[in-house]
Amino acid sequence: MIEVSHLSKNYGERRAITDLNFKIDKGDVVGFLGPNGAGKSTTMKIITGFMAPTSGEARVCGYDVFLNPIEVKKRIGYLPETPPLYLDMLVDDYLKFVAELKQVPKDKIKDYVDMSLEKAQLTDVRRRLIKNLSKGFKQRVGIAQALVSNPEVLVLDEPTVGLDPKQVAEIRNLIRQLKGEHTVILSTHILPEVQASCDKVIIIHEGKIVAQESIADIANLNKGFIMLTLKTRKSQDIKANLKAIAGVEEIEEVNNQYYRIKMNEDEELIEKVASEVIRSGAGLVELTPARANLEDVFLKLTYGQETESGV
Ligand SMILES: Nc1ncnc2c1ncn2[C@@H]1O[C@H](COP(=O)(O)OP(=O)(O)OP(=O)(O)O)[C@@H](O)[C@H]1O
Ligand SMILES: [Mg+2]
Questions:
Q1: β-pairing verdict for 258-264 and 284-291
Q2: DSSP helix/strand/coil, 245
Q3: CB of 187 within 8 A of CB of 158?
Q4: How does residue 180 score in pLDDT terms, banded at 50, 70 and 90?
Q5: What is the mean pLDDT of residues 52-67?
Q6: Could you tell me the distance, in angstroms and rounded to a whole number, from the CA of residue 187 to the centre of ligand 2?
Q7: Is there a single domain that holds both residue 194 and residue 236?
Q8: Which ligand 1 atom is the nearest neighbour of the CA of 42?
Q9: CA pair distance 78, 266, nearest whole angstrom
Q10: d(C-alpha 198, C-alpha 55), whole Å
């Protein structure tokens, strides 16, 4: 349904994305996950035909986004980072206007506007001026305009940004309901968002794809292991001593006196680690076990400096 191959984009000297390759099947809900500046919005602008890549190709429903931008735009609903709202319009007039632009057949416009109002839970404010709505409701109008043509593919750039927790839950619910009927790609830097709504995740970091898995597989990557967070009182290197304990797989100093340890799932081992820290004289301040999850994988893959300063 969406096919991206060898896609790269430079802004002048700055490389925003480099050689991205991925495929999204019909009916899938895929999370595009990455820290700020990773290249999520850039990729979405290219897929939706709003910006040309420097090299590479993107196809949506079989159409090349540059050779056939009109065919692509007809099939895509896009929520950009800053939704293109006409602030002086009433909510339902604006949605009607977008439906007309998207060439929704005249006899379907009313139904589609009603459907998008209902899905984005805007029915109560349909006769209000967009400029008078709160930020979260403006965001919902942005989601409604992406839905109003009942598109095959939805591209949502950070759909829950600016919403309150209740609205976040509602939008996640809505996205889950779109599954199957629509193909959805949503970007986020928030992990629970992906876990709550998506079947697959593409993790992007510094303009490159660092993982591409189903959510179930990612969770399994670390099966049989637990993660320990450990804090010592003194800054004294304890890595080598802990690494020497059988069953300790990896140890990483995340911050001063803060360590993350990946080890076999074995309670006695936690005791051994604690004893060793005390024996070494470094002082044990904190020791927290947690089952390895998507967050561990994400942090590991994207750990490093922010990319905003340039790649
Ligand atoms: N118009 C532009 N001109 C120059 N550089 C840009 C432009 N747009 C984006 N960039 C740079 O390209 C890189 C990727 O930006 P992009 O907006 O795609 O990231 P993102 O993953 O969407 O980040 P965020 O989570 O902050 O929205 C960043 O280094 C950014 O500074
Ligand atoms: Mg962005």
A1: unpaired
A2: coil
A3: yes
A4: confident
A5: 94
A6: 8
A7: no
A8: 18
A9: 47
A10: 29
